[in-house]
Amino acid sequence: MAQAASKTCEVCVSAPGSQYCIECEEYYCENCKLLHNRQKLSRNHQFQKASDLIPDGKSKCNEHKEELTLICNTCNAQICTSCVTGQHNGHTFSKIVDVIGQLRGDNETKIRAKENESIHNMKKIEDSLKSFNNSVESVIKSINDEGNIIKRMVDKSVAQMIALVKEQSKKEKGKLLNSLADAKSVFVDGQTLDRKRKELEKTRQDGSLVQKINNLKEEIDKLTINSLPEFPKISFSRKSVAEDDIRQMMGTYTISSCAPVLEKKENPCRIVLIQDVLH
């Protein structure tokens, strides 16, 4: 089992080893790091903060007391260089620093891929939302336009029906006015004959009076009173119109309801007839 070693500079062995040389796999203090970077053979060595190392601090093999610098790929265990010729003989190995670098690189690559995919999805969603909003406005305009067309058709039908009522009622009222004029004419003629009758009552009763009375009688007999016409009637029978009847006059619209997008899977959309839902 590995045990954690204290993080002390492995050069001066006095100051805290706050820096870790990846190539040398050793801890350095700040001063020793500066000296290490000034040397020709190590000027390009890469350092890492000791606090960022995983695992925290260096571990040593309990069996060989050497630093654990390798990972046995076969056993998936940390080992030292002496373990290679021991119980791990014939296995495949990787440097711990290489594994850490590879894992960090893989994680960074995956994170960048996820970020890029998220950006791509956000852009597609925003574009789709904008397009959908435009389509909604277009559908609303179409519904209003069709509603206005139907309103104009209703207004036209109402105007035509009212005009027809006025035309036909004018004819019927004309007939009544003619009958009224005839009745007034008979009444006037009757008044004229009545005045003649009264005048004859004042006339001397002789043979000529008889003739005059007979003449008046003939005129009275000729006075004809027409029978009353059949009086016209008008009424309106309302049809029962429900909201569903109005909807039947309108067009329909659909919205495709799509399931959430799943990675590498189909995304079927369900077409819904919205007007049917309203019923």
From TrEMBL:
The keyword Zinc-finger applies. GO terms for molecular function: zinc ion binding. Keywords: Metal-binding, Zinc, Zinc-finger. PROSITE patterns: ZF_BBOX (PS50119). InterPro entries: TRIM45/56/19-like, Znf_B-box. Gene3D superfamilies: Classic Zinc Finger. Pfam families: zf-B_box. Residues 4-50, 56-96 form the B box-type domain. CDD domains: Bbox1. PANTHER family: BONUS, ISOFORM C-RELATED, MEIOTIC P26, ISOFORM F. This is B box-type domain-containing protein.
